[in-house]
Specification:
By secondary structure, the protein is an all-beta fold. It has a domain of 144 residues. Helix content is 1%, strand content 41%. Strands 2, 3, 4, 5 and 6 form a five-stranded antiparallel sheet that branches. Strands 11, 12, 13, 14 and 15 form a five-stranded antiparallel sheet that branches. The longest helix is centred in the middle third of the chain and has 4 residues. The protein starts with 19 loop residues before the first strand and ends in an 8-residue tail after the last strand.
């Protein structure tokens, strides 16, 4: 790629600018592409999931559900040639879903208000209808990662109890670590253990936050406020969301639990600023790892102080963490912000919401500990503001990172409401370590 200001080639070239299109909106002004999820099956087949939102979804064939006052529809795809071509396999009334393998089955867990899950027993060719795991509740998430340990799969979904938040409600989110045995039927609620709940409001009083410039803009409860009073640039109350789960197993590291019962929750931090993630931990209470109830709490550092915010490049947007068992390293796929200090009144008209909301540059980092992140490269860059490359998921596929991005082009409604789901491949990713 070249710098449009001087036509000089960039010294840092994107690692995976080329892509295949998994799914495209049939009506970019009224049907939007969301929630790309990705997993690799034991056969080598790739399974991709996404959902459509927007007013035009009511006209699509197949089942739809209602969420946020509008229609949504989930779709599942497979590829048998490394992501070059994709075949649609199912349409279901499910959103914010992610695929994962457990035992001989592959599942897609998500919600349509209540938590629900689909199962395939034939390598993703055919799928069950969504099976509810809750009744009369309000759930949330994005296609974040899954973790395998102790003969179990661990993942986080997020519940929103009614706490009176009138703005975008991330202050009231409770990240719930879920544990299911790999040999169980995970369409049955009794085969899951849900952690207890800790909302952001339970964890911290945002009025007491100080010294980190958080929140960046005034955003009083319960409704937040427009940044600098500028209409269309709204900052919701501080909160956390879109939770990944990791476990630290290196006994030389401070947050390693030698009992193997502690899992750390790495979350997008909604602060109006950039470069921070929220952190909590979930601790199993049984006699052995993989057993007993799970308690959710804040983490501390050796001084005894709570560690709610940790450095995280792109932590202001949805990010995705995978752990490479071969090299024992964590890889972070996130959104790069370049101009979050631009005044709200001076933003370009096509910037979505706040200054920290640039969405068209996917970046890759690597770390031993999820704290000290080394830049590994740009993955892909959209040519214009609405050509987003964001909210991506990734899996390790041999020597490569396979990546699914919520994307757009010049036809997209806005940077948030893209019209494409694109597949990218970072080849020989371990060679990026230095």
């Amino acid at each position: 790629m070249t710098d449009p200001a001087n036509a000089r080639p960039w010294r840092v070239q994107p690692l995976a600018q080329e892509h295949s299109v998994v799914c495209e909106s049939p009506d970019p002004a009224r049907i939007f592409c969301y929630s790309p999820g990705l997993c690799r099956l034991s056969s080598g087949r790739l399974l991709a999931t996404m959902d459509f939102g927007g007013p035009g979804v009511t006209g699509l064939p197949g089942p739809t559900g209602q969420r946020y006052g509008g229609p949504h529809q989930g779709r599942f795809f497979t590829s048998d040639n490394g992501g070059e071509n994709w075949q649609e396999r199912a349409t279901r009334a499910i959103m914010h879903h992610r695929p994962f393998v457990a035992g001989k089955s592959v599942y897609v867990i998500g919600h349509m208000n209540d938590l629900c899950i689909c199962r395939s027993d034939d390598d993703g060719r055919t799928w069950s209808d969504p099976v509810p795991l809750t009744d009369g509740e309000d759930w949330h998430q994005a296609p974040c990662n899954v973790w395998y340990a102790n003969g179990c799969v661990y993942l986080v979904m997020e519940r929103r109890p009614p706490l009176g938040i009138t703005a975008w409600n991330v202050a009231g989110i409770a990240p719930v670590l879920m544990r299911g045995r790999l040999d169980a039927d995970l369409t049955k609620r009794e085969n899951w253990t849900f952690a207890d709940e800790l909302t952001f409001l339970d964890a911290v009083d945002q009025e007491q936050l100080e010294w980190f410039g958080t929140p960046f803009f005034p955003c009083p409860l319960p409704g937040g406020a427009n940044a600098d009073g500028v209409k269309g640039r709204h900052c919701a109350p501080v909160g956390w969301l879109e939770t990944n789960v990791v476990q630290f197993t290196d006994p030389t590291q401070y947050w390693c639990d030698p009992s193997g019962k502690t899992f750390h929750l790495w979350m997008r931090a909604n602060t109006g600023g950039t470069g921070l993630a929220c952190v909590a931990k979930a601790v199993e209470q049984g006699d052995a790892p993989g057993t007993g109830p799970i308690r959710t709490m804040l983490e501390t550092v050796p001084s005894g102080r709570h560690a709610l915010f940790m450095p995280c490049p792109g932590g202001q947007m949805k990010f995705h963490i995978v752990h490479d068992e071969q090299d024992k390293l964590f890889w972070l796929l996130s959104t790069q912000a370049r101009d979050s200090m631009t005044k709200a009144a001076c933003l370009p008209d096509d910037r979505f919401n706040l200054p920290n909301n640039e969405r068209r540059r996917l970046q890759l980092h690597v770390s031993r500990n999820c704290i000290d992140w080394c830049f590994a490269g740009l993955v892909a860059v959209g040519e214009v503001e609405r050509a987003s490359r964001h909210y991506a998921s990734m899996v390790i596929d041999g020597d490569d990172l396979a990546i699914l991005s919520r994307s757009g082009d010049e036809r997209a409604s806005c940077p948030h409401n893209g019209n494409l789901i694109t597949f990218h491949r970072v080849r020989d990713f371990r060679g990026l370590v230095y």
